[in-house]
């Protein structure tokens, strides 16, 4: 419970909060440990391998990375995601459910690394992250992975290869606006290039 003077004061915030004394109830749903990554390095090796420890650390790193991404601090977000992969590689899951959770977190980390490297225009790094993802899951069935393969090859100037990946992604999500837009842009580029080549040789 919080007294009005510690919240919105006696004036309130009309019309939602009345301009008169009232008590406010604040519920705390989650706490993110901003220093979980740093603390993890100080733990004994046996502790670092525990599933509960690794997943808690990784979830904290991923939460912080999302905030950094929103602030366009992509390089720092990349470091956090890279650390989360290292932490997950140490994890020793004890059953099938724990194995599935570790796999899910690794997929999340590599995909987000691909997104971050796209933002700082490092297409070869994007491809490397997606190739790492290939060892964990079938990227041919993963729309987001196929889309960022396309983005990477587009940045490298390999237009036809980019179109192939965009088309694969669009098959999985036919109503995806971003994929459709990327394909239209490349189709337009190819058509204009063909016209230029024809005019050159006339």
Automatic annotation (TrEMBL):
<dbReference type="InterPro" id="IPR011990">
    <property type="entry name" value="TPR-like_helical_dom_sf"/>
</dbReference>
<dbReference type="InterPro" id="IPR042282">
    <property type="entry name" value="FKBP6/shu"/>
</dbReference>
<dbReference type="GO" id="GO:0051879">
    <property type="term" value="F:Hsp90 protein binding"/>
</dbReference>
<dbReference type="GO" id="GO:0005737">
    <property type="term" value="C:cytoplasm"/>
</dbReference>
<dbReference type="InterPro" id="IPR019734">
    <property type="entry name" value="TPR_rpt"/>
</dbReference>
<dbReference type="Pfam" id="PF07719">
    <property type="entry name" value="TPR_2"/>
</dbReference>
<feature type="repeat" description="TPR">
    <location>
        <begin position="143"/>
        <end position="176"/>
    </location>
</feature>
<keyword id="KW-0802">TPR repeat</keyword>
<keyword id="KW-0677">Repeat</keyword>
<dbReference type="InterPro" id="IPR013105">
    <property type="entry name" value="TPR_2"/>
</dbReference>
<protein>
    <submittedName>
        <fullName>Uncharacterized protein</fullName>
    </submittedName>
</protein>
<dbReference type="GO" id="GO:0007283">
    <property type="term" value="P:spermatogenesis"/>
</dbReference>
<dbReference type="GO" id="GO:0034587">
    <property type="term" value="P:piRNA processing"/>
</dbReference>
């Amino acid at each position: 419970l919080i007294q009005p003077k510690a919240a919105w004061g006696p004036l309130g915030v009309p019309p939602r909060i009345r301009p008169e004394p009232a008590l406010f109830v604040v519920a705390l749903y989650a706490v993110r440990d901003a220093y979980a990554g740093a603390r993890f390095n100080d733990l004994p090796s046996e502790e670092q391998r525990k599933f509960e420890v690794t997943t808690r650390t990784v979830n904290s790193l991923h939460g912080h990375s999302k905030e950094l991404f929103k602030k366009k601090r992509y390089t720092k977000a990349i470091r956090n995601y890279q650390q989360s992969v290292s932490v997950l590689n140490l994890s020793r899951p004890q059953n099938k459910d724990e194995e599935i959770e570790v796999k899910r977190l690794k997929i999340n980390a590599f995909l987000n690394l691909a997104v971050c490297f796209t933002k700082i225009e490092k297409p070869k790094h994007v491809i490397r992250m997606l190739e790492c993802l290939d060892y964990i899951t079938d990227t041919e069935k993963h729309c987001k992975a196929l889309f960022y393969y396309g983005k990477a090859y587009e940045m490298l100037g390999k237009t036809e290869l980019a179109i192939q990946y965009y088309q694969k992604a669009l098959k999985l999500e036919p109503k995806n606006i971003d994929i459709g837009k990327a394909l239209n842009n490349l189709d337009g580029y190819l058509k204009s290039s063909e016209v230029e080549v024809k005019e050159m040789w006339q």
